[in-house]
Design a protein that fits this description.
The complex is a heterodimer of chains A (312) and B (295). By secondary structure, chain A is mainly α. Chain A has one domain (2-311): MetI-like (MetI-like fold, Orthogonal Bundle). Chain A has helices at 2-46, 49-52, 66-97, 100-115, 118-145, 161-186, 189-197, 202-212, 214-230, 233-238, 256-263, 270-302, 306-311, and strands at residues 56-57, 62-63. With 295 residues, chain B is mainly alpha-helical. Classes of the chains: A mainly alpha (312), B mainly alpha (295).
Chain lengths: 312, 295
């Protein structure tokens, strides 16, 4: 009888822990449910046009999210263009070239960068980076490149899509570096030894290693993309918040996250609020897909090593 | 492997004992670029820390922590209500998330073999990827709409959801670090599974679990987006959990956007305090975790 009692308590204990683990599902389900229900009125009113319309007229209650989707995609693209080459090169440095002390020093700086709250990046972008862009970089871009391409035309405000892209790139670099480094370290030593033994230079040997680590590095980039797509406060502070689609990178714009942060508490009217919640739902769906893809890639590339996943 | 093979062929064809000039040049350029990239990556942190100190340090006086914000035009004042508000909301979030997260972490580490734990693990990773603003919108629907007003509790729920994935993942990792010989020895002595976990495994992993959980809590303390429309913010002193409450990140946001120079300066000081709070805690904890791992 004593044995039996112990056995049932063991089961109860296990069940309790299992319930805690299952709670994660419940939370994700609740997030989906709440955003879907909240977005309902807007979905019924506008249907798929919501994603392709550029209207944003709270007075007449016409809403379309295209300018915000566009702003999110363009700022994230700028962030990736800036962050990917630098991030991967730095990861290669950390895993292949750096001495141990220097390497762990830079990794530590990366951890600290990742720990800085996004509002602080926003404050820095707003008060420091914006004047630099307004007075130095953007006038130069307009004068020298503005004639060739519509990407750099208009009045330099400092606040705008370019600023948001740069801030995002600073914020996602640690993600790219820490995961790429784990993936590079997970490649077999024999790859390096074999290529060096065949007479390859250091750069060529690293090329072989990077080639082998490519899926994992791609995973880190996609994971960084997921972070850039959903980043809110830093972008809200520096993007300028106008709902226009412009091809000039130095013009102000808005992103999906920034419009929610800006207008949610001011949204009067059920449909207005619902439209904002639908933007959150779209953002949620996009980031879930992007993250799922990235995690599969990282998992595959590292053979499921837990440290790499934790670095994410 | 094919890359290695093709390079072997290329080297064979070259038939030259000495490495060609172009290859050496490429080697130098490539490695040089990597060094440069590492230097560039460190630069933003240096700049941000420099500006935080240059612009925020002058306002960092004792009264910043003890005084209430002053009306526009009046110098001085502090963010006492926001600092206390942040501590309350983050603390409440931790009370909600830490026990749940650790329990789930134990489950994944100790019973984590089958398909269900694998799915939970994947869901946890996905939860970590959900933008914090979306969590804020969900908490708005879950708590604010049902309560009928913005409240500190809603903010705590949003932050708890954000803490959860990190706590689960790191406590699983810490429990896995406990040598399996501990479990075998306890089981061999006739202890039931729950006793093995509660009295042998958890005490051994306790230091790591506590540190990792605090790290997750510290990270979330700087979040702004999920608080904007849950805890909202409050110009006045309030410790009531069912009312809007001021928090440091939201205060920084409001003060940085305000058209008053004095407020902007306060925002810099607030940012400095927030960064000190979050990074000092994280740095100290990370060092202790690293030490725990190497031992």
């Amino acid at each position: 009888m004593l044995r039996g009692k112990h056995f049932t308590f063991d089961d109860a204990y296990r069940g309790l822990l299992m319930a805690a683990a299952a709670f994660v599902f419940l939370i994700v389900a609740l997030i989906v449910y709440e955003t879907a229900v909240g977005a309902g009125p807007s979905m019924r009113a506008f249907g798929w046009r919501f994603l392709t319309s550029t209207d944003w007229d709270p007075v007449n209650e016409h809403f379309g999210a295209l300018p915000y989707i566009y702003g999110t995609l363009v700022t994230s693209a700028i962030a990736l263009i800036l962050a990917v080459p630098i991030g991967i090169s730095a990861a290669v440095y950390l895993s292949e070239l750096a001495r141990r002390g220097v390497g762990s020093g830079v990794s530590f700086v990366m951890e600290l960068l990742a720990a800085i709250p996004s509002i602080v990046y926003g404050v820095w972008g707003f008060f420091v980076l914006a004047p630099w862009l307004r007075n130095g970089i953007e006038p130069w871009l307009v004068n020298n490149l503005g004639a060739w391409t519509p990407l750099f035309s208009g009045t330099p405000f400092g606040i705008g899509i370019l600023n948001a892209g740069i801030i995002l790139s600073i914020m996602i670099v640690p993600t790219i570096i820490s995961i790429s480094r784990e993936v590079l370290l997970a490649t077999p030593r024999s790859f390096r030894e074999a290529s060096l033994a065949l007479g390859a230079t250091r750069a060529e040997a690293i090329g072989v290693v990077v080639d082998a680590a490519r899926p994992g590095i791609l995973g880190s980039v996609i994971l960084a993309l997921g972070r850039a797509l959903g980043e809110t406060m830093a972008v809200t502070m520096v993007i300028g918040n106008t709902n226009r689609i412009t091809f000039s990178l130095i013009d102000p714009g808005a992103s999906m996250a920034s419009v929610i942060a800006n207008e949610f508490t001011e949204a009067t009217g059920k449909l207005y609020l619902s439209a904002l919640i639908e933007i959150a739902l779209v953002l949620f769906a996009v980031t879930i897909v992007v993250n799922a893809l990235a995690r599969l890639l990282v998992h595959w590339a590292t053979g499921g090593r837990r440290e790499a996943a934790a670095a994410a | 492997m094919s890359a290695v093979h093709s390079q072997a062929v290329a080297v064979g064809r070259a038939e030259r004992p000495r490495t060609s000039f172009v290859r050496v040049l490429w080697d130098r350029v490539f490695t040089g670029t990597c060094y440069l990239a590492a230097a560039i990556v460190v630069l933003p942190l240096g700049l941000i820390v420099w500006h935080l100190l240059a612009l925020g340090l002058s306002g960092l006086r004792w009264e910043f922590f003890t005084h209430m914000p002053t009306p526009v035009g009046e110098a001085g004042g502090g963010m006492a209500n926001a600092i206390v508000g942040t501590l309350i909301i983050v603390g409440m979030g931790a009370i909600l998330a830490v026990p749940l997260g650790i329990a789930a972490g134990i489950y994944l580490a100790e019973y984590g073999g089958g398909r269900f734990p694998a799915i939970v693990r994947y869901t946890t990773d996905l939860l970590a990827g959900i933008p914090s603003i979306v969590v804020g919108v969900a908490a708005y629907g879950l708590v604010v709409v049902r309560m009928g007003r913005f409240s500190a509790i809603a903010g705590a729920v949003a932050l708890a959801i954000l803490m959860l994935p990190t706590i689960i993942r790191s406590s699983e990792e810490m429990i896995r670090l406990v040598p399996s010989s501990y479990r075998h020895a306890a089981l061999a002595l006739g202890a039931p599974r729950w006793k093995v976990i509660q009295q042998v495994v958890l005490p051994a992993a306790r230091a790591g679990i506590v540190t990792a959980s605090m790290l997750a809590v510290a990270r979330v303390a700087g979040e702004t987006a999920p608080l904007l429309f849950t805890a909202l913010g409050n110009r006045f002193w309030s410790t009531r959990l069912d009312q809007p409450m001021a928090t440091l990140p939201v205060f920084i946001y409001d003060y940085a956007r305000a058209p008053y120079l004095e407020w902007n300066r306060q925002a810099w000081t607030g940012a400095l305090v927030l960064v000190l709070l979050v990074t000092l805690i994280s740095a100290a904890l990370r060092l202790t975790i690293r030490r725990a791992r190497t031992h």
